[in-house]
Amino acid sequence: MARKKIIAGNWKMNKTPSEAVALINELKPLVANDEVDVVFCVPAIDLSVAIDAVKGSNIEIGAENMYFEESGAYTGEIAPNMLTDLGVKYVIIGHSERREYFAETDETVNKKVLKAFEHDITPIICCGESLTQREQGITIDWIRQQIKIAFLNVTADQAKKAVIAYEPIWAIGTGKTATSDQAEEVCAAIRQVIGEIYDDATAEAIRIQYGGSMNAGNAAELLAKPDIDGGLVGGASLKPEFGQIVNYNK
Ligand code: PGA
User: pLDDT digits over 219-232, tens only?
Assistant: First the structure.
């Protein structure tokens, strides 16, 4: 069965709750496309109003982060059941900005992935190499290691439902998109390592997004690649342009 494409917006630290409602109302008609899963990942403080604002539309709401404990003395963190209580279906785990600025590691990513699955939240698991790593020729080795650690103790049934976002760090927010061949090479390698950890059926089922300066001009070419099943979109997800990305096939 063909994998359904999944296009997710990553709003990062943008939009107050009232601005979030206004943006959702503006984008709602533009992102109507039943052939694609559409997710808006919004700041934690916006989740509640965003869930209300998307009612009756094809948009699902995701969080940008989540903690790996159930509850307790973790000032400032968000527990998984706080997300599910609202109806949040997805959570971005291990974005490179969280790894760089908030000390997240492959190990904390793995703990968060396991916890998300425990609560039936679909993790969007981020991986990606720096420019130095690409220039050193270690991109594939690096990504394989990130994926192997992220999926430790994850079952095949869980892995089939996971979403992986391949985001070369040098392409994020820089306007410097990976070429579709560069993106496909790494996404194919990710599918291969999933096949090695699990089996062919799991590798065929898992969805792999590309992220990093995806826009209305390059989305169709990237999404035409056999191993690119969607996009994780930052800057362009805050604009009407996101509708063109979601409707890349129209
Ligand atoms: P960008 O961000 O589309 O602005 O490059 C992508 C991301 O960081 O998820």
Answer: 999 999 999 999 99
Cα 133 to averaged position of ligand 1 atoms, centre (Å)? 19
Q: What is the pLDDT of residues 17-45, one digit of tens each?
A: 999 999 999 999 999 999 999 999 999 99
Query: Two tokens at 74?
Result: 């973790």
Catalytic-residue membership of 95 = yes
What's the half-sphere exposure (Cβ side, CA atoms, 13 Å) at 212? Answer: 27
Q: Could you identify the atom of ligand 1 that is nearest to the CA of residue 173?
A: 5
Residue 1 has pLDDT above 80, yes or no: no
In sequence order, what E strands does 51-120 have? 59-63, 90-93
**Distance from Cα 199 to the centre of ligand 1, integer Å:** 30
Integer Cα distance of 152 and 230 in angstroms: 24
Angle, CA 219 vertex, CA 143 and CA 97 arms, to 5°: 45
Model confidence at 99: pLDDT above 90: yes
Q: Which of 60, 64, 95, 129 is catalytic?
A: 95
Find the range with the poorest average confidence among 65-69, 171-175, 242-246: 171-175
CB atoms within 10 A of CB 69: 12
- The two tokens of residue 94 are 């291990």
Mutate to test the pocket of ligand 1, among 174, 213, 215, 218 (most ligand atoms within 8 A of CB): 213
Both tokens of 133, joined, read: 């790593």
Specify the residue with its C-alpha closest to ligand 1, atom 3.
234
The rounded distance, in Å, linking the Cα atoms of 47 and 61 is 7
